[in-house]
Amino acid sequence: MSQASSRVLGVMAAAPAVLATVAVLAFAARELSGRTPLSYGRPLNIAEAAGAGEVSEVLRFLRAGWDPSQVWPLRPEIISSTVTRATALEAAIWGGRQPLVELLDRRGFIRDAETRHHLACLAKDIGSDEVVAYLSPGAASSCEPGAAFAVLKARSNPQ
Amino acid sequence: MIELRPTRWTWLAYGYAALVACALGYGLLGIPVQVSDSLNNLVEASQGSLYDLVYNQFFQRGYLRPFLWGLMRAVFDLSQGHYFEWFRGWHVGQVAVLSGLFVALLRVRRAVDAAVVPLGLAALVGIHTFSGTIREAFPINTFMTILLCCFAAAWLALGTPRWWRDVAAALLLVFAALTVETGLLVGVIFVAAWLAGARGLSRAGVAAQVALVVGYFVLRFVALGVGAPGLEERASGFGFGVLDRDQVAARFGGNPLPFYAYNVAVSLLSLVASEPSGGVFSVTQRALAGEATAINVVSVGSSLLGTALIAGYLWARRREWLARRFTADDQLVAIFVAVAAANVVMCYAYTKDVILSPAGAFYALALAVAARHFIDRASMTPARTAAASVVLVLLSTGWAWRAVAAQIDLRHAGNVVRVEWAYVDRWLERENLTPTTDEARAIITHLQEDAIWNHPARPTLAGDWLGWFEP
Lengths: 159, 471
Description:
The complex is a heterodimer. Chain A is mainly α. Chain A is built from eight helices and two strands. Helix content of chain A is 57%, strand content 3%. Chain B is mainly alpha-helical. Chain B is 69% helix and 1% strand. Chains A and B meet through helix 1 and helix 3 of A and helix 1, helix 6, helix 18, helix 19 and helix 21 of B.
């Protein structure tokens, strides 16, 4: 057996696996230093956390005193480039996340019937039947199709 | 047997294994203690004394796993309330020891020995049977404990003869068998190694292993009447779908033999081809529909290529084996063959990837041995070297790909567990597990604090590239 050939084959066997390990370790080191590659980073506010479905982050924002019924800016990659300003309640609905909507509701953040109706109509506009069923199945029939979504779009693009 | 002195290649291999353990450990520390499968176990294990907990487990129906609970309780007590640090740290420690044992079993002395370690470790981490040993914990992953016991058994069996190895082997088998049923594979390893010429254990030591396995069955089925889980206790993968418990009972209740034969056959196929998984031919189904993903193709392709390499090794060594002349590498591959056979038989009533994890781990070892043999034989001419290079690059790339996919899966698991913790109240209600004692409530609150506030979720990965790694 040739020593050189053996060395070449050894490198061929080892290199891809070693590269993968090095890549994972480099990723971990970069993340530990404060920046996560190949991600959008941490949600910047409670609406981003809700829109991304990161419910544990929503809880962290809530404990820190953030208001999920307030309008917050959203980066375009969280929901879409047309929805860049929303409440956490609206963002949660956008993700079709009924349990999160219920969690926020149980904590009293859907404060009045008007808000509930708006949220139900938004859920209907984006086809999230589960959320419609939870929020207000009867009232959703009185929604003007597309109106709730239009409110969000208008808010995101005021000009 | 001659003990070989370590070389720089030995230490390089251990160093690399440490890096792999670090990479995996980083992923493991991103997962909190789970809600499902862990929370209730932890609360139960915290009650009463350690003795009562272990003793009572001898009188359960269907399962005989007293040391699973004993170990859980021991770590619980040691943690002094630092549950995340201890239970997750325990998991990381297990992975580090497993990686070290992997290298020890390969007996790395030459450059070519060290060269196959990355491929072997990638196969160990990337094989689908390993996923359940790192993705979950109960809160100690029992299957990972058994992997360690199996590797430790192989290390004892393949070493130089010493009286204490017999004693350690007996204790290891008792501990493993009374932790979870697949622990009986420890006995299989000792017997297989002995039949393949390894003399780490004496004849008496191997006889004791056989006696202990017989004793286990007498204890379980005669003395304690624990029995085995019934056919109707679990849903089960079958063909392109999953049969629920009633369907299994209706279809095979009268004559379960075809069902058992199916489970054994698909378990073997799963081990050597990564398809089916859990008894379901999902990749085949996707392929027929033209929807197979990149990772589906890579998984099946890398497994088939790896199996072909191991089969090539067995073929090349067949005359030596028939003449009962075994090298150290042969002994390792012989253990793989024995563990694979016994492990797939153990899946007769219920096939699940993680139950095959011991066979999967020895598959990775056998693959590394076969690759080493392949390199030794393939570099005779330039043409053969070139062809072998292509095979090795494909093999290593495929398994590395799967190892990276396992890392991504761990990250995903961390987020899934945190979602469970966010909705833990609903889960407790649904499962009728609402805590009734202050101690149980305190454990739940502590674990939720750990999962959401003390060890927050890492940012979610994003980008089209993820599609290359998702099943």
